[in-house]
Write a sequence for this structure.
């Protein structure tokens, strides 16, 4: 028995192929839109090529690193931190919340008089990615002004509370002349790790251009500093404030948040 097969005209075949191609294109576009939307809700480096990123670290051939301290609550260990840094000839960066600045103005002056720099850590320590642009500007403007009134120096650095950010925050910082700063080495000192544990996390994590995160009121942070400074200095590293580490112009930031000079 002969089986008859149905033949389609060339016009029909062409139309079917065209419809298939259109369907594939539309599906691809829809997937990409969904993927981008999901990534725009994520926090952290490397989530999307279109993400606006803060500076996590700096690409450099020099053995330079920066250690930073976030200031939001308390000053119990701050004098000891300043004393140890003076003994080791280390200059660093503090990021202070406005209510901390207003509560401890004498410490703001101590920090600056010792040769360290102060950036803003916001006005009220909120999750910045949840704020509208007007609210972001208020957080950054008023907190910077509070620091500048006490120090007489312009604030150029900002660290988002909780490390939380989105495109709007980073782009707004750029419009306001502020460099948003993250970190690539986390001491986890807020978890009350021992001084040795904190020191080893930092010593084993740094590379050229690293930015180290600590807190001024960490329970064992001060205990960790002598070992950190002696070990890394013996390895040839120099500690500088963040403003001396980063590039101020003609730079790009890769998908890992690492800043490169052009």
């Amino acid at each position: 028995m002969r089986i008859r097969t149905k033949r389609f005209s060339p016009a029909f075949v062409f139309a079917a192929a065209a419809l298939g191609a259109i369907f594939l294109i539309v599906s691809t576009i829809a997937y990409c839109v969904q993927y981008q939307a999901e990534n725009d809700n994520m926090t952290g480096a490397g989530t999307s090529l279109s993400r606006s990123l803060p500076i996590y670290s700096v690409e450099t051939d020099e053995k330079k690193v920066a250690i930073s301290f976030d200031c939001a609550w308390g000053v119990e260990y701050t004098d000891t931190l300043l004393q140890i840094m003076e003994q080791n000839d280390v200059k660093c960066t503090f990021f202070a919340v406005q209510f901390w600045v207003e509560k401890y103005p004498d410490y703001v002056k101590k920090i600056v008089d010792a040769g360290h720099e102060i950036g803003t850590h916001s006005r009220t320590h909120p999750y910045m990615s949840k704020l509208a642009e007007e609210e972001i500007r208020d957080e950054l403007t008023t907190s910077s002004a509070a620091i500048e009134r006490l120090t007489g120096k312009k604030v150029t650095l900002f660290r988002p509370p909780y490390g939380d950010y989105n495109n709007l925050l980073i782009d707004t910082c750029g419009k306001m002349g502020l460099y948003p700063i993250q970190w690539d080495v986390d001491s986890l000192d807020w978890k009350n790790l021992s001084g040795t544990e904190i020191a080893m996390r930092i010593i084993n994590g740094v590379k050229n251009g690293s930015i180290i995160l600590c807190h001024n009121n960490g329970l064992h942070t001060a205990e960790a500093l002598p070992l950190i400074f002696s070990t890394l200095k013996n390895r040839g590293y120099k500690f500088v404030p963040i403003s001396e580490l980063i590039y101020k112009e003609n730079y790009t930031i890769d998908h890992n948040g690492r800043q490169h000079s052009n």
Notes: The chain has a mean pLDDT of 87.
